[in-house]
Amino acid sequence: QVQLVESGGGLVQAGDSLRLSCAASGRTFSSYVMGWFRQAPRKEREFVAAISSSGDSTYYVDSVKGRFTISRDNAKNTVYLQMNSLKPEDTAVYYCAAGVGRLSAVPRTSIYAYWGQGTQVTVSS
Q: Is pLDDT larger for residue 52 or for residue 26?
């Protein structure tokens, strides 16, 4: 069992930066692929980024490439999402998730067994 708790969300202006954190419980954190998803009002949950269990490989949705960076610290059981040059369309609730799967499968919600409660990110224009 893994419990995930996100933090770091808030209200910022377009062009600002935020860093989200996701703290995980349990001793098996380093064995999981970690992903970040987001869900805007009246929209489906959308894949944002993922990182392999070792941290060697990352994967991003095209709309955040070059602006967002996912990283992890397995010693601290924490995954991060550094978000730069934020845009109003980045406004959403951001969720972290833990799962098992190949890198090609990380955009699929079905590979993630554990989810956090979400943290709100609001970007004003």
A: 52
Neighbours of 97 (CB within 10 A): 25
Place of tokens 């991060």: 80
Please state the rounded mean pLDDT for residues 40-63. Answer: 96
Residue 70 CA to residue 38 CA, distance in Å, equals: 14
Of 20, 2, 15, give the one whose Cα is nearest residue 92.
20
Q: Please state, in angstroms and rounded to a whole number, the distance separating the CA atoms of residues 97 and 14.
A: 26
Rounded to a whole number of angstroms, the CA Rg of the chain reads: 13
Is 112 in a helix, a strand, or coil?
strand
**Residue 35's beta-bridge partner residues?**
50, 97
